[in-house]
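Good morning C.,

I know you're traveling, so I'll keep this short. The sequence:
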Amino acid sequence: ENGESRTYLRTGDLGFLDGSDLYVAGRIKDVIIIRGRNHYPQDIEATVERSHPRIRPGCTAAFGVDRNGAEALAIVAETGRAHKGMNLDEVVDAVRAAVSREHALEVHELALTPFGTLPKTSSGKIRRGAAKEAFLRGEWLPTFTSRTRRNEETSRTLPPEGPTKEQVASWLVE
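The tokens, ready to paste straight into the viewer:
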């Protein structure tokens, strides 16, 4: 405008200017685009964490996955340490209802995982990209998995006694 040239550094951050203040709102690569609408994983994760008391705060990852050539929503959420007596169907129903109500999205895949499963940075933030890769490779044995296939839902739970020693050991190694 006034003859100044500006140089920008592409950091991959998503943000905006409000007057002279810069706000960083997330990462461009984390945006989930479903049916042409942008959805921010942090918003979906916050919804999931508020949906049921068994979901651990700060221990949820939402990301897009390619299913039959279309982007679909997948969520991995940690539950508390004790799974005995936990009504996992109730947790799944609460998550699905909250995400549908607040974001008008269907949760295509939801995996409830044991305490300490999700990868985090040294400062305690979820490593969403690493979580997505581990999810896609099937590295975790979830406590409960729920998938939607055109009005059909399937689920799998661990036996009431919980995971085996080998399963716990593999989670701890990660």
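Safe travels,
E.
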